User: Fold this.
Amino acid sequence: MQPRGKTSGIRVYAPGKCRYLAHRSADSDNGRTEKFIRKKQVKTTMAQEKNIVLSAENLSIGYKDSGILRSGISVSLARGSLSCLIGRNGAGKSTLLRTMCGFQSPLSGTVTLNGKPADSYSRKELSRKMSVVLTEMLGEINYLTVRQTVETGRYPYCDCFATLGQEDRTAVNRAMKTAGVEHLAGRTMAEISDGQRQKVMIAKALAQDTDVILLDEPLSFLDMPAKVEIMNILKNLAQAEGKSLVLSTHDIDLALHFADSLWVMRSDGAVRQENRPWADKNAIVDDVFGVKGELIKDFLKL
Assistant:
């Protein structure tokens, strides 16, 4: 019989040693697994952060004279996605969008665009990164033709005389085609319908050629077919062209159908973000209106 530990071609059974080696192997495997999981989590977090094009962190919005309207807002917009900002009348949707785009300063907190503080961009730099469609703008341009209105989207790229070059005209033509307003080019803004005006303003934002587009109530005063048409255009811009869009709306049913994420202005003053798939559609309705609601066949019933 060979002494214990001498192999000489014979396999030796050493229970204590085997248990030790097995235990050490298991510990090693567990360590490698934990390290792999941590590394994967870090990579996932970095990828998610890299994919965020616009965000707000602990933002307070409002006016110095009247005080804070909403506080503690932390929301984000992913690249190539459509987010809908939903809330009641007077909830602060327009104020949040105006703060996100730099039209007014936050009372506290930060807005980040492409990984940099939004207020670190010059006005011209910001206008090449983000375009804005505000409802209040529509009444100021009645005298312009549709083409002239869309051409104003190219001003961030023009010289001090606002002279359009061939590249600018090409961008305008492409934007008008995408928004479906080519046939309206020679008509004034006063001569077209509300739905057509909204499409023209979307074309203007497209001509501006920015990664991010913010739209304040683009569905206001439109009938249902026009609303669906606008939402289809915006959804296609996100999916097909990689644009990142945020729009405010009261149409929760349409937001639930088209949006990739929701920025929910709750009736209790808080703001939260929910990403698709929706955990509970009826709970979203409750958050917005503060009453029990029910969505039936994609239509809202309160």
